[in-house]
Amino acid sequence: MADPNLEKLERQYEQAKARLQSARARKATQDRKVDARRKIILGGALIERASRDPDVTRLLKSLVEGLARAQDRKAFDGWSPPAPEADRNIDNVLNGGGGADSAGAHRGDVEGAHADDPSRTSDPATARDLNAAQSVQLDKPS
């Protein structure tokens, strides 16, 4: 006759094994979701950065061209990273600017219109630098 205590212990062992296997599967699923989310966020950030930085645009093109698996490369058929140079040219046409190499010209500015007052620039990077410099000056005791 089988020992009822032994059968009970074997049943508990099998149940514990099943719970452990289920917990491991849940953790693996969660890890894959987190990994996919990181890749999506990082990819979006890289594409956004490529729209502003020609070096990152070149890097992105190189990464896509260097994909080893054909199915991965196929996902990028007909796609190209945003080109910052094209964006600037379109911006100049739309805003009537004199081009990026014109003296005093910033996005939307009439050539040299704000050359005497750099704080009135419409260039976001320059405005951000000026704001940072002004906040530092304001923090100094007089």
Brief characterization of the structure:
Helices cover 65% and strands 0% of the residues.
Characterise the protein shown here.
The structure is a single chain. With 142 residues, this protein is mainly α. It is 65% helix and 0% strand. The protein is rod-shaped, with a radius of gyration of 29 Å. The termini are far apart.
- The tally of beta strands, per DSSP, is 0
Residue fraction in strands: under 5%
- What's the pLDDT, averaged over the residues? 76
Order of helices and strands: HHHHH
How much helix is in the residues?
Answer: 55-70%
Major sheet: none
Cα-to-Cα separation, first versus last residue: 96 Å
Radius of gyration: 29 Å
Rough outline:
rod-shaped
> What structural class do the secondary elements suggest?
mainly alpha
Poorly predicted parts? 99-115, 133-142
Q: Number of helical runs? A: 5
Task: List strands and helices in order, with pairings.
Blueprint: H1 4-50, H2 54-65, H3 70-74, H4 84-95, H5 124-139
Features:
0% strand; 142 residues; mainly alpha; rod-shaped
